[in-house]
Amino acid sequence: MARIVAGVATSHVPAIGAALDLGKTGEPYWQRVFSGYEPSKKWMEETKPDVCIVVYNDHASAFSMDIVPTFALGCAPEFPPADEGWGPRPVPVVKGHPELAAHIAQSVILDEFDLTIVNKMEVDHGLTVPMNLLFGQPKEWPCPVIPLAVNVVLFPPPTGKRCFALGKAIRKAVESYPEDLKVVIFGTGGMSHQISGPRAGLINSKFDKAFLDNLVDNPKKLARMKHVEYMREAGAEGVEMVMWLIMRGALDDEVEETYRFYTVPASNTAVGHIIMENPKKHGGKKKSPAKKTATRLAAE
Asked: How many of the other CB atoms lie within 10 Å of CB of 153?
């Protein structure tokens, strides 16, 4: 059967994509950001997923304010990069996995989650920047991708509790798929940031680091967090982190933390990143979580 082996959470700052596209990754400002993802790219090369599910939010590229689905699952065979105002990013077309996507849609909808099924969709930096950070800049992406777009732009966004439960339903769906596939699921967005208003530029490292700790050890606490708390502690755009809970819900209750990276700022945003793996079974027992064994906390 198919199985989810790991979860990846990462910020998807658009300026990171611009730095990549314009060849600025070696500049002092950006070098500290990109160096933090080097161990992650090596991990991804070793993991070699057959499929990635990428949970992200659309930034008025595929969806306008006319139609804003709460959860939209990409079931198309491919997803071109969107033109976000300065032309499409020079990244490969994202190849989908329609068979697994359709299977997930059927399973999750019958589990009473009302997904929007999307058979034609462009993907913006919310998806392509995380792909670059974990896979580099290949001529073709090394595996198919199933996009899951979540509304965290127009009120009301889904609750953390609902997102966490959706992750569990996605795991159930993946594990009922008959083909032997290794799946990695991404949660993207955040961390603390606000891009407009009197608090523009807000970064709350204390909140961010506590969120990372709880994502590993106490995700149910995060699932109870209210929208107003995200806004108060992490800025108006901090609610993007509910998408990380979809990823976390798709993993085991106990996970092994493989790698963590955090730095500020990147275009007035706190960049957070973590990789968690489902523990390998040994004699019927799970290994103790390797908490923060490969953690890198960059200078702030």
From this structure: 16
